[in-house]
Amino acid sequence: TVSQFPEVEKVNERIANNDFFKDVIDGLSSQPKNLKSKYFYDQAGDAIFQEIMKSPEYYPSDCEMEIFAEQCAALAEAMMCSENEFDLVELGAGDATKTKFLLRHLSDQNIKFSYKPIDISENIINYLHATLPVVFPKIQMEGFNGDYLHMLKKVSSTSQKRKVVLLLGSSIGNMNIGEATEFCIKIRGTLSPGDMLLIGTDLRKNPSTILAAYNDKEGVTKKFNLNLLTRINREFGANFDILDFDHFPTYDPLTGACKSYLICLKTQVIRIGSFALSFQKDEVIDMEISQKYTLEDTRSLASSSGFVPVADFYDKKKWFLDTLWIA
Ligand code: AVI
């Protein structure tokens, strides 16, 4: 049958069996309402995240950049890079800005390894394949496009070499402690004794400094959160008006949980595909957690997921920690 509304047909076709759609409907039908922050990163979201990293309040990327810019020799030594040939596997490589410092060091030292970036964005993997061999002609690289754990399993099943896995940028913070533990257990499950994991965590510090990083004056973080509503409008023909929602970040210094919510400013019904979802005035949508860690938190994450910590790398302010674990 030919629909009278081909646009609606197109949307319906796109949303059948779509995980993003299912998660949106599930999340917005739950109490409290929630959306998964992993969906922030469409093309516009990627660009807004770049803007966040340049904002004066958002310190985590600068801190970790400093660690990579200044401590590559120590990192390489702790990772035992000069021993047997190994695979350097990066989960969520992005444009590898920080990792390039390590790649430069390893390449200059003529250390034998393969760089295996994994990213959910095909664009990113294509970009790395096009650019890295030009900058680092001596380095072997093979990119993998897909889900972190699936691709890590694939890397493990296709290479017998020792693995050093990078999970940078405090990505682990976008899971609560329970999810982070489960995730690290799964990573451990793909690794063998002697393999390593370097994990970037944002540390607890003055609560005002943390809160400001998620409440920048320019409103970039607000735009980042609202962009997910715009994405839902575009991909599923929904009718969110972003002016009806406000950004509300919180930080609890007792638990280290930094959270972002969107607040609905009026009672309304939002249509998404064939669903009609009620929103009350002042109702919140739980959008994102950015968990902040103590050193002890990282230690218990390591031990509950089957790793042993071997070295810690801090920036000068001790605001960020890259902690290296061995399986
Ligand atoms: C990607 N992730 C580690 C960022 C963070 O700090 O949680 C995402 C972000 N959300 C708001 N600002 C930055």
TrEMBL record:
<protein>
    <submittedName>
        <fullName>L-histidine N(Alpha)-methyltransferase</fullName>
    </submittedName>
</protein>
<dbReference type="InterPro" id="IPR029063">
    <property type="entry name" value="SAM-dependent_MTases_sf"/>
</dbReference>
<dbReference type="InterPro" id="IPR019257">
    <property type="entry name" value="MeTrfase_dom"/>
</dbReference>
<keyword id="KW-0489">Methyltransferase</keyword>
<dbReference type="InterPro" id="IPR017804">
    <property type="entry name" value="MeTrfase_EgtD-like"/>
</dbReference>
<dbReference type="Pfam" id="PF10017">
    <property type="entry name" value="Methyltransf_33"/>
</dbReference>
<feature type="domain" description="Histidine-specific methyltransferase SAM-dependent">
    <location>
        <begin position="22"/>
        <end position="325"/>
    </location>
</feature>
<dbReference type="InterPro" id="IPR051128">
    <property type="entry name" value="EgtD_Methyltrsf_superfamily"/>
</dbReference>
<keyword id="KW-0808">Transferase</keyword>
